[in-house]
Specification:
This protein has a domain of 44 residues. Helices cover 82% and strands 0% of the residues. The chain contains two helices and no strands. The longest helix has 52 residues. The relative contact order is 0.05.
């Protein structure tokens, strides 16, 4: 003689678990993409700032009159160029 068990609840629970895992996988991918985007943006912002920081350090070694002239020409050229 055998026994019969109703496994309907178990099947529904497994299906719900599978759907939750798929949802979590999608959310995880979204967060990963957002993290990569944020890292790329931070990199693009940091590069020009590093150049400006280096330029400012070097300009600190110049005499004041030359520093003003150099900074003035730097800002004129940067405002005339296309940054996009």
């Amino acid at each position: 003689m055998g026994t019969i068990s109703d496994v309907t609840d178990r099947i529904h629970t497994e299906e719900e678990l599978k759907e939750l895992n798929e949802t979590l996988a999608i959310e995880s991918q979204k967060l990963s993409v957002a993290g990569q985007l944020a890292a790329g943006i931070a990199h693009e912002v940091r590069n020009p700032l590093t150049s400006i920081n280096g330029f400012c350090s070097l300009s600190g070694m110049m005499p004041m009159k030359r520093r003003r002239t150099t900074l003035k020409s730097f800002f004129q050229r940067s405002s005339e160029s296309n940054w996009y």
